Each structure stands twice: as C-alpha cells, then as structure tokens.
Amino acid sequence: MLRLRRTTLAMKHRLALVLFMAALSIAPLVAGDAAPKATPVRQKIREIDLNIMLKQYEYVATQLAEMRLKVRLLEIEEGLTDAERKGKLATLRKKIELMQSISDEYRAEAEWRDDKEKSSTEAAAK
Predict the structure, then answer these.
(1) Given Cys at both, which of 9, 80, 92, 99 links 84, Cβ 3.0 to 4.6 Å?
(2) CA–CA dist 48, 120 (Å, integer)
(3) Sign of the C-alpha dihedral, residues 7, 8, 9, 15?
(4) pTM value?
(5) Contact indicator for 54, 110 with CB cutoff of 8 Å
(6) How many angstroms separate the CA atoms of 51 and 60, rounded?
(7) Mind listing the pLDDT tens digit for each residue in 74-106?
(8) Cα distances (Å, whole numbers) of residue 89 to 77, 79, 104, 113
(9) d(CA 121, CA 36)
(10) Any idea what DSSP says for residue 67?
(11) CA distance 114 to 107
C-alpha cells in the first residue's frame, strides 16, 4: 500500500512537471499574439504631427465656411453703397481663395501621410 502511494505520488510529480514544461513552451506563442503596448517614439511623433495638421485643417475649413456665409450675407446686406459692398466682397473672395488653397494643401498632405502610413503598415505585415 505504501509502495502504491509512492508510485502514485511520483507519477503526480512527473505529470505536474510535464504540464509545467508544456505551459512554458506554449507561453511565448500566446505572448506573441498580444499587441505591443508601447509605441516607438517616431510613431508617436508622426501621430502628433498628423493630429496637429488635422486640427489646422479643421480650423481652416471652419473659417472657409464662415467666410462663404459672410459673402452670402454681405450680398443681401442693406445700408451699404455698391462701392463698399464690392470692396468687402472682393476682400472676402481673396481670403476665400487663399483659405481654399491652404485647405487643399492640408488635405493633400494628410492624404499623402495616410497613404504612406498604409503602405508602411502593409510592408511591415509582409
């Protein structure tokens, strides 16, 4: 009876050892599936730059929409002479043209960065 207990105990220890070894061999496979928690510094800088650019684009687009609204309101505003109205409209239209150009530049830059990021992500996945 004592011999049976010793044999059973020895088998339990061996089984525990085998399970422990199996767990150790599987652990790196499971850990490899986890997404990295920390991003590299350069990636973080690119994200910050893109966020700043998007905020600038949002500001310019908002200003552009407000200027276009001002033009429409100025066209029907009473109490202005034709010369005053034409002068204000000309100034606003020049500003709109400049802001549209800036907006287009920001949009093109953001789209270029997005395409670049996608292509580098796809290259890293391969």
Answers:
(1) 80
(2) 18
(3) positive
(4) 0.60
(5) yes
(6) 14
(7) 999 999 999 999 999 999 999 999 999 999 999
(8) 11, 15, 22, 36
(9) 14
(10) H
(11) 10
CA 66, 68, 71: angle at the middle one, nearest 5?
110
Q: Which of 101, 40, 49 minimizes the C-alpha distance to 93?
A: 101
∠ Cα 39 43 49 (to 5°): 130
- Give the angle subtended at the CA of 117 by the CAs of 104 and 102, to the nearest 5°: 15
User: Dihedral through CA 106, CA 108, CA 64, CA 82, nearest 10?
Assistant: 120
For residue 125, is pLDDT > 80? no
Other C-beta atoms closer than 10 Å to the C-beta of 100 total 15
Q: Which residue has the tokens 């020895």?
A: 10
Q: Where are the domains of the chain?
A: 1-34, 40-125
